[in-house]
Design brief:
The protein is α+β, with helices and mostly antiparallel strands and 121 residues long. The protein has 4 helices and 8 strands, in the order H-E-E-E-E-E-E-H-E-E-H-H. A 4-stranded antiparallel beta sheet has the order 1-8-3-6. Strand 4 and strand 5 form a beta hairpin. The radius of gyration is 14 Å and the shape is globular. The termini are far apart. The mean pLDDT is 92.
Length: 121
Amino acid sequence: MGAENVRTVLQLCERRTIQPSDNLCKVREQSNDMAILLSGQLGVFTAENRQISTVQPVALVGEVGLITGQPRTATVRAIQQSSLLVLGKTAFDRLMRSNAAICLCVYRNVGCTMMGRYEET
């Protein structure tokens, strides 16, 4: 993705900091945004509150639910103070409809991310 497209996406994001034990999202909640972890560490927890993985910078969180519209499949909680860029669903959908180059890049990257996660399991 070119520098101009990166700037376009970044302008739509909100910077957010969450503290240890704060939830970024909860299992079964509506997927209304996705985040890019810039610093810190996040834990991924099941509905039974069992930690199943960690998220390290620079990683996407919540992109699949944002694209599919499905509820969250896990709770994501800060293990360390974490800095994120958050992109809301309305802005994401508008961007995907208006910019084919960004849309293609996003969906290609999400597909690669999903394959990597599948291979890990």
